Fold these 2 entries.
Entry 1:
Amino acid sequence: MSPNLGAYRIVGHPLLPERAAGEVVRFSFDGRELHGIAGEPIAAALLAHGIRVFRTMPETGEPRGLFSGVGRSLDGLMVVDGVPNVRVAITPLAAGMQVRTQQALGSWEDA
Amino acid sequence: MRQVEVAIIGAGPAGLAAAAQASRHGAQVVLIDEQAAAGGHLRWALAAQAGPPDEIDGLPGFQAAQVLADELPDTVELLAGTVAWGLFDDRVIATAGNADADQIRAERIILATGSTDIVWPFPGWTLPGVMTARAASILMHLHRVRPGERALIIGDDAQLAEDLRMSGIEVVARVASPEVVVAGGDGLLEWVELGGERHAVDLALFALGAQPDPELALHARCALVYAPADGCHLPLRSETLETSVPGVYVAGDAGGICTTAQAIAEGQLASEAAVGGTSVGKLRASLTALHTQRQTAPLWSTGAFPDDLVIDREEQITAGEIRQAISEGALTINDVKRRTRAGMGVSQGIFSSRTIAAMLHAQAGIPLEELAPMTARPPARLVSLEHMAALFTDVLA
């Protein structure tokens, strides 16, 4: 069975050329094993699986997701391999990455 | 610290044109871009572009980006995936890549840092699923991912509607103004109300146009002037696009939203002037020939903002807090920042300054022309202390 890259992938765009198949890698989101494409932004890999909440805010606990798409807002900050405040809109996905929802300002966790 | 002749920040159409122009004169050029590849916002655009140059005329944006990137001379050093996070005295630029940090002292700097999308607060606008049109376009066109299935478009953008349909996303509604939107959902965007009518959506996109993003020019403390067509202050530029800080130029959208052809012409002109070339007059004439008349930027109402509406997303500062600061005497955007923390986060008010200016204008009657941007300070992006500390190894050694 081919790996599940998520239900939100666009296949057969009417204008854009087909892309070379990227290298499929495994990563985890909050402990859940998922597949994505190496080198795509972590945010794209998550949204492909319909995962839209990336962090919560200090004090209010309000959920946030991708906003600027270019790493310009701080709504797309997550804990990646134990490092908090990683801008997932512009950080490439790599095999074995452990991605976690960031709570408030985040904390350093065991990688 | 490295020394270069010309450093160009931003590898969109203006930056690429500037790099090619300087390189033609044999100058040593470094071209820096935060994105993974050169091409700027054209990389994720499907709209047909208009030349000059002829080789991009009629091409969809993503193909034009490829043509321009392919034309970049080998002699230009392209630092992609690298953030220029500070511009200091004596034209020193601080950079951070994925693995390393550096300082570059340049004889001439051309800032071609492009734009960000204009946003405007409405109830529910911080819910996941509300994002800029740019974010959606990057996902759909660069990464082939649908950010949702049912979309509201906020703004008059027929191209975006077509782009969404081509990616299999249903356009549920389009509104011209953000003032009429109310959104809600349980931890995620689930619905919008427009004129009392509720629609199920999981995506709401700001398509209100772009605003220039010349933040590094502000680090250099260059003189600013209000630009009615952009609805904000921008670096004052000479006939050759030089700012009031000698040797620092601004080209492309960062100096005022422009067409691709204008951005390329600006990049060429700034670069020619920066290297002391002899074609400045000719390039100036080419740019002038591309002149287009632009309308005054729209100014939406702030009066109906509920007091608990978040205006600054990052610091979570509400309309009520900003109104109170103004009623207590705040007269400038910096005043509001000091009293409320709005804009003190790393994004430095990029998505709230326009709204705060409009609130000061409406409540205190201050003309927009007098509302200068808040003071911008390094770092312009989130940078690790490790990267910053690396800059001082020269000093400590």
Entry 2:
Amino acid sequence: VTAKRFGGTFSPGGQGRPAVVKPPPRTKWSRMQIRPRSLRATGLFLFPTPLLFGALGAIWRGDAPGFVWMAATYAALILGAGLTRVGIAAQAEYEARAVAKPPAFPRKLFGAALTGLGVGVASFFAAFDPVRALIFGAAAAVLHVVAFGPDPMRAKGLNGLDQDAIDEAITRVETARAVVADMTRAAAAFGDRTLEERVAALAASAEQTLAMIERDPRDLRRARRFRAVYLVGARDATVRFAQAWTHARDPDARAEYEALLTDLETHFAAHRDTLALDDRTALDVEIEVLRDRLRLEGV
Amino acid sequence: MGDRYLRGLAYLALALLVAFSAVEGPAGWRDAGRPSATARP
């Protein structure tokens, strides 16, 4: 019996296998994520329902004080549930980013406090016993914190940098995103499907670059230059073209704008690839070229 | 993993606490003989 060496055309090292597996192409959906809705937070909306019926019953009986406390307690519990849900969403957002500031308002903790308050008030009226109310209210707040966890409290990313630098980095990427959004909004005024789609593609491309900068934000000068040179230029050109195009449909202006879009597309792609290669010298050259180009365009 | 179970248990306890207090509160309030328009003699 002769042993046959394992391996076929598509085995590692085989003939049919390309040497390097190419990553799937990036699309505008690449950054999208499925954001799971928290079933637990949704449950918090349902559990206080008996209080709602209680409040309706109080109306039926003509019991005004009863109605007030039941409705107020129900409202506190629902508000707590809502804060918990947006707190979970804010935490998911925080965790999805490489560099992030903590949410400005600790929503989950306030949700816990409101839940504790609601449970405390409802238990007080069950037996008119303040000690019992205090214990149950505190227990509810503590259980809420254990079940949902506290909010993220510290800025993350950029270890070793001080708070100001972190703030600046985040602000830069956020400002750049706002510029991209401005550009997309201006393009909506074109009334021209083809151009709008090209601008949307450009925006998606810019978004990918921003995501790269965000993932590896050590060199923040990149972010600043990308915004100051490429994005602001693209936005201003788009806004001006939108104004010109709505006033007079000048085919020459359109052709020029399309040429600029083509240029920007090429440069965005080049910028992205350059970022990927971390080749700063080439990037500087690219920026100089585009800067000249934009100057020529009168932007 | 233990953390997950702890969170789940805490959630379950919280759910029961909220639901029971939401039932008990109104019931206790009624039992204390609060005004009732329909039960008036």
